[in-house]
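Budget justification aside, the reviewers requested a transparent look at the raw inputs and outputs of the sequence design task funded under Objective 1. We therefore reproduce one unedited record. The lines immediately below are the structure tokens for a 409-residue chain.
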């Protein structure tokens, strides 16, 4: 085992959480002209720190190599944009935000969230490392700095725009290889009396619901409330409240303040910590057994696809999310078992999935081909996608959800 150390506390990482073998970067979609060229695969070997219990993937790939030019645009999920609107309304009311306030978002993507504050007349600034995506946000009139957040860049953005009443970070805290420097950047951005909120998939739900496809190289750590609290404390931030969310198969929204303004944590914080402790996540031993559950998902999905092929049934995919690429590569699924997938994002259409080289088409292809089964890769958007695909019933087509257990509906 490679000698690596915990990115939070520095202890040697000697314990395995799960090893998914080798996989390409999940957002490294392949253009047609490169299909005969080589692809780079990296380990997906997740460790757990025996000291601080942070579940983490070593930084096999630097963040700059992944996020400087990115293929994920948040606005192509209607339900995610609606989720962002609810958050903006709630925070505006709770914090009394107005024209003299400032909202900063880290990993602000294409403006899917900040646009709602702008519409309410609240000043904003986004910090987004992917220049291609930042340009889309700027075209919407959203001030956006193209930066990776750290202590230095956080201080520079704060010097330029002032410190923020609210700093938001959605699905970014798991994506940073240097979590201590990133946390210091959050602390530099927020006012001494301000609020930081971070949303990330909850490790407890990942384990309970067999969500192993959320493991990929863009996710450097897999957070419980306990380990997120320890990480935030490294920058002088204290968790004061937490919301349990249904997004991404079960997420947490952690509310943190600078230590001098924190006060007592809410009852929600104590309840979630108690649930984690009851599930064993406050001990090293309580994290055992996940690898066997992962094998069960792989066995059931591959068996279903092989049977469908033997019966002459046609199977296509819906969506081209990063998590789908972990699933397909780990299971060894290629176009002989799933002919193609479709995606609403024009930035992915006409390209091919990394590793598997399964083609990505426009969603209209499903209605034209009338397949027997549609394998839904972004299962976390089950309600939204089930509505979008309701028309497959017209020819007796069925939807297949691989996680938390294989389900054909």
């Amino acid at each position: 085992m490679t000698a690596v150390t915990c990115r939070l506390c520095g202890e040697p990482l000697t314990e395995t959480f799960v090893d998914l073998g080798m996989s390409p970067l999940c957002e490294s979609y392949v253009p047609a002209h490169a299909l005969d060229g080589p692809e780079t695969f990296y380990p997906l070997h997740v460790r757990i720190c025996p000291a601080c219990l942070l579940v983490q993937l070593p930084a096999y790939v630097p963040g700059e190599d992944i996020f400087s030019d990115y293929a994920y645009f948040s606005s192509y999920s209607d339900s995610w944009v609606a989720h962002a609107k609810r958050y903006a309304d709630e925070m505006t009311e709770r914090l009394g935000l107005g024209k003299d306030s400032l909202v900063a978002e880290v990993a602000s993507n294409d403006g899917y969230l900040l646009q709602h504050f702008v519409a309410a007349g609240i000043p904003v600034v986004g910090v987004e490392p992917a220049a291609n995506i930042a340009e889309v946000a700027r075209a919407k009139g959203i001030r956006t700095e193209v930066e990776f957040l750290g202590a230095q860049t956080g201080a520079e953005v704060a010097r330029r725009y002032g410190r923020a009443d609210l700093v938001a970070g959605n699905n970014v805290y798991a994506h940073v290889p240097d979590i201590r420097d990133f946390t210091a950047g959050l602390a530099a951005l927020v006012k001494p009396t301000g609020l930081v909120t971070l949303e990330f998939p909850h490790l407890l739900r990942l384990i309970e619901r067999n969500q192993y496809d959320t493991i990929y190289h863009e996710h450097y750590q897999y957070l419980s409330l306990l380990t997120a609290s320890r990480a935030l404390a490294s920058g002088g931030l204290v968790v004061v409240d937490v919301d349990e969310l249904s997004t991404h198969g079960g997420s947490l929204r952690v509310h943190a303040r600078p230590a001098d303004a924190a006060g007592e944590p809410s009852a929600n914080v104590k309840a979630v910590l108690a649930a984690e402790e009851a599930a064993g996540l406050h001990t090293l031993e309580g994290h055992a057994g996940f690898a066997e559950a992962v094998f069960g998902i792989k066995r059931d999905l591959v068996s279903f696809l092989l049977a469908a092929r033997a019966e002459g049934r046609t199977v296509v995919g819906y969506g081209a999310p990063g998590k789908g690429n972990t699933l397909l590569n780990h299971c060894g699924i290629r176009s002989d078992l799933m002919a193609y997938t479709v995606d609403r994002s024009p930035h992915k259409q006409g390209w091919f999935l990394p590793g598997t080289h399964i083609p990505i088409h426009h969603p209209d292809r499903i209605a034209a081909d009338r397949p027997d089964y549609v394998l839904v890769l972004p299962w976390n958007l089950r309600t939204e996608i089930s509505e979008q695909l309701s028309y497959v019933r017209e020819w007796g087509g069925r939807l297949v959800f691989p996680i938390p257990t294989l389900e054909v509906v």
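Residues 19 and 45 are 4 Å apart (CA to CA). The two ends are 42 Å apart (CA to CA). Computational costs for records of this kind are itemized in the attached budget.
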